[in-house]
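Possible regression after last week's pipeline update?

I re-ran a chain I had predicted before the update to compare outputs. Posting the input and the new output here so someone can diff against the archived version. Not blocking, just want to make sure nothing changed silently.
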Amino acid sequence: MNKKLKGKVAIVTGSGANIGEACVKALAAEGASVVVADINREGAERVAAEINDSGGRALAGYVDLLDEKSVETLVAASLEHFGRIDILHNNAADTRPAQMAADASITELDGSVWDAAFAVNARGTMLMTKHCLPAMIAAGGGSIINTSSGVSILGDIFTPAYSASKGAVNSFTRNTATQFGKQNIRCNAVLPGLILTDLSRSMVPEDQLAMLEKHTLLPRLGNPNDIARTVVFLASDDASFITGQLFAVDGGISTHQPFVGDVLASMV
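New output (post-update):
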């Protein structure tokens, strides 16, 4: 079978569970050697073992995106183990339940909550990109895929810090694409809508899930493989002339007038 990413090496942050796990497994299934990078050592080791047991090539890597030395160590270990870096998927974000619960009304938002969102989501993305770029350029180019969010482009009544940090990721995506395009570096962002994971199911009540499904144009909510397939596409030569773009993978929820879901429901 012709695998799209044979001979490539990919690092995926936050890949010890949920969306990141689906993405790193999808990259491995297409032939990439992968670094399963996460602050959760146990999760990273589990996912890497599952990839290796299924015939892929994976290295579990610990990384704390708040610590630049930790990022440097991860990148150095990846290069020592696999010899190159071709793909970077900046997927990790601070979605701790306590952090997300505190990210509420702007008038009550503590500055530490704002800083925590930017420290991981935006600064962490920058640090990983900064330290992977030299190796990617030396390898002749590569693809960087940043996980942003649908809330980065639409106003919401929740998570202003998270939303703003993901807006920064969008801007950083375009700056990276602009600065390094001539070195054959492509950089794009994926903007998920609500994706059904263990995390999202634990945080979003069933009635809100039903409401969001009503406003999704397609007849279902998203799952991690919807994001994974997009990441594989952007990592592959199929996307070799695509850079600096924001890809909403949200079942169409960001494309329509706010009343469309109610109108469709009334027509059933």
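Follow-up from reviewer: compared with the archived run. The mean pLDDT is 96. Marking as no regression found.
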